């Protein structure tokens, strides 16, 4: 090994890729968060993608109360949430790709498959923009569109988060919802792969 390489080795606070956690951490550092759902044997509950029966908790809340439809303001703004595995009480925040945006709209204004995916008017989509991975956290109430402020892609929440304009080339994956004991719960996994999809 070169002198420079040895110096780097001595000063590096490296993860140990031979362990499960070390491997996932190394992949995450390298920008391969998607690896967790591609390697089921390595996935941990906090990093696994949302599953049917998961509840949802607000990202900003210290108390991870399970969200009910009425916790989402009608007509916006949107609320960012994490899935919660009820079996282990694990908030699935081990991967940013699990972040979900929730928006409550008049059910009568929803279109197509979004009607069946919504619960009491609440629609859920991946909060990660498929263009370059920024967080979609803008709700333009005057235009009734979701906005990614990085490069201004706009999405129609009433119609499957289809791209209206901007550089994104695909819709935000939807997370179908249902109501269980008065709380919002995941009805089905994401409708597509979340995050940036390599071409
Ligand atoms: S990352 Fe969202 S528009 Fe570019």
- General shape: globular
Structural class: alpha+beta
**Roughly how much helix do the residues carry, as a percent range?**
10-25%
Low-confidence stretches: 1-41
Ions, cofactors, ligands: which are bound? FE2/S2 (inorganic) cluster
The helix tally amounts to: 4
Please outline what is shown here.
With 199 residues, this protein is α+β, with helices and mostly antiparallel strands. The protein has helices at 3-11, 20-29, 35-38, 113-117, and strands at residues 55-58, 79-85, 90-91, 100-104, 122-126, 138-140, 145-148, 153-156, 162-165, 177-180, 183-186. The longest helix has 10 residues, at 20-29.
Please tag this protein with its features:
disordered N terminus; five-stranded antiparallel sheet; four-stranded antiparallel sheet; binds FE2/S2 (inorganic) cluster; alpha+beta
What does this molecule look like?
The strands form three sheets. Strands 1, 2, 3, 4 and 5 form a five-stranded antiparallel β-sheet that branches. Strands 6-7-8-9 form a four-stranded antiparallel β-sheet, with no helix packed on it. Strand 10 (about 175-180) and strand 11 (about 185) form a beta hairpin. It is an alpha+beta fold. The two termini are about 35 Å apart. It is about 15% helix and about 25% strand. The model is unreliable at about 1-40 (pLDDT under 50). The protein is globular, with a radius of gyration of 19 Å. It contains four helices and eleven strands, in the order αααββββαβββββββ. The chain binds FE2/S2 (inorganic) cluster (FES). FE2/S2 (inorganic) cluster (FES) binds near residues 129 and 150.
């Amino acid at each position: 090994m070169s002198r420079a390489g040895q110096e780097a080795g001595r000063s590096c606070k490296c993860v140990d890729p031979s362990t499960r956690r070390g491997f996932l951490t190394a992949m995450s550092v390298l920008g391969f968060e998607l690896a967790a759902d591609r390697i089921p044997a390595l996935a941990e509950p906090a990093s696994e993608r949302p599953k049917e029966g998961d509840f949802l908790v607000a990202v900003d809340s210290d108390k991870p109360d399970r969200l009910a439809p009425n916790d989402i303001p009608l007509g916006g703004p949107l609320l960012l949430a994490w899935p919660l595995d009820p079996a282990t009480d694990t908030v699935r925040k081990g991967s940013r790709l699990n972040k979900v945006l929730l928006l409550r709209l008049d059910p009568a204004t929803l279109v197509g498959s979004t009607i069946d995916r919504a619960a009491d008017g609440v629609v859920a989509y991946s909060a990660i923009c498929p263009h370059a991975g920024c967080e979609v956290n803008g709700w333009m109430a005057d235009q009734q569109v979701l906005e990614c402020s990085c490069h201004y892609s706009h999405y129609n929440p009433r119609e499957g988060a289809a791209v209206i304009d901007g550089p994104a080339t695909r819709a935000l994956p939807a997370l179908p919802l249902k109501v269980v004991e008065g709380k919002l719960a995941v009805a089905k996994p994401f409708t597509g792969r979340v995050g940036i999809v390599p071409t």
